[in-house]
Amino acid sequence: MTTLAQYLESHATKPIASTITTLATASVSISHLLAKGALAGIHGEAGNENIQGEAQKKLDVISNDLLLGALTANPHCAGVASEELDEISPANRDGTLLVTFDPLDGSSNIDINMTVGTIFSVLPYHRTGDTATEADFLQAGSQQVAAGYFIYGTSTMLALTLGKGVAMFSFDPNTQTYILINDNVTISESTAEYAINASNYRYWLAPMKEYIDGLVAGDTGVRNKDYNTRWVAAMIADVHRILIRGGVFMYPFDTKIAGKAGKLRLMYEANPMSFVIEQAGGASTDGVKRIMDIAPTHIHQRIPVVLGAKEEVAFVKALHDKAGILANGDKA
User: Fold this and answer.
1) What angle (nearest 5°) sits at the alpha carbon of residue 180, between those of residues 178 and 186?
2) CB of 98 within 8 A of CB of 124?
3) How far apart are CA 271 and CA 147, in angstroms?
4) pLDDT above 50: residue 46
5) Whole-model pTM above 0.85?
């Protein structure tokens, strides 16, 4: 059996290996708290809102503090950015890496005992010796040197990419270590399974409505085959399902909330998940453009997301191209 430590020793530089190990150690603490559930007093809301204007769950705050404390103490980490915090947190000036994270994706699922997880992205730091600022984080996703997620479900697992494929690990509660279970995770180019919040249908652009109408029509429609809908209401769970058995996940642009191009955050969710999906052989766009080519303008920037099986991602893009519009409704 190959442990995470052994895998990192042979596949990653010392700074990256150290950073991933720090994240993994924090994930074990989060997993233990989730396992205790209500007995640990983690259920319910913390009584605050995050920078996104969302009510924070108690474990959102606890997980954020665990990760922030661990990463800022890592000598290789020059700065940390969290979805839960307004501003970035400078760390060690001599560090060569920056880390962004969503401490508990899908936290609305905690109280009903459903899947949640931690998403992370690791970027290079180019001004070693100086104090990190938000501008240092505003790098395209293509600059990531590592990304992945810890998923806390029936078992705790880690999906990790270092830019040369995707490896998956399962946490062994007996040895308290992550064990490699698949060093070459791949996604089929075609699928008959999709994930989307259909309750927002009336707010979507015409190309997305046309796409979903085609899937719903099944073998009587333009796609000539039946599709199944799967929706967990946690990006991390839907992406994990795609890595395990294929599919396509979408949170497209909608007009439900004025001024918000999409629900998902570029730096904390879309970029790391896009890196993982692409490295597993899938594709990831905002509906038209490759997500990892997008130059961030703000640490909490939101974008539409369409990722997973290449055939489906390409079909969505083709419908937007045919309509002559971008994924945010602007003319192409």
Assistant:
1) 130
2) yes
3) 9
4) no
5) yes
